[in-house]
Amino acid sequence: MPTRVVLLVVLLCAAASSRAVAHHSFAAVFDASKAIRVTGTLAKVEWTNPHIYFYVDATDEKGTVVRWACESAAPGSLSRRGFKRSLLKIGETLIIDGYQAKNGANLMDARRVTLPDGQILSGASAGDGGPQ
Fold first, then answer.
1. Is 115 exposed, middle or buried (0-12, 13-18, 19+ CB in 10 A)?
2. Hey, which of 35, 50, 124, 132 has its CA 20 to 30 A from 74?
3. Is 3 left (phi over 0), alpha (psi -120 to 50) or beta?
């Protein structure tokens, strides 16, 4: 019996720590000196904690379509500001302003999202240490 309890505790701690690692400060992943703007077609949305991700297909300077992963705040935080999941429609063109990942990957912190109708949404995580 004690072995099962220990195993259960270990498994629960491992599950909790993987979620904690996913939640991070701005400076841990993104570079405040790499401000970028990406215009692309919305391909996928992951509306989950601790950060939402949405993916856009954009054309780079060589004419190649590349997929950008855009990270924003937690779903509850975004919803309270009026940034609802229903506003992100697959196939629509978005303009995303934010900051690129430190490692140069096609990953950005999406601070501002402009919808096709011109509506601007704030995707920043309050108090994450990043530029506002």
1. middle
2. 35
3. alpha
Where in the sequence is the domain holding 104, given as residue range(s)? 25-122
Q: How far is CA 71 from CA 11, 17, 24, 108, in A?
A: 28, 20, 11, 6
> Is residue 90 domain-resident?
yes
Report the candidate in 100, 121, 118, 112 with the shortest Cα–Cα distance to residue 26.
100
Phi, psi of 33 (to 5 degrees): -90, 0
| Residues 78/70, Cβ–Cβ less than 8 Å | no
Q: Name the pTM for this structure.
A: 0.77
CA 4 centroid distance within chain: 37
Q: Which helix (H) or strand (E) holds 55?
A: strand 53-59
The CATH number for 52's domain is 2.40.50.140
pLDDT digits (tens, 9 = 90+) for 55-100: 999 999 999 999 999 999 999 999 999 999 999 999 999 999 999 9
Count of the separate structural domains present in the chain? 1
**Rounded CA separation 51/53 (Å):** 6
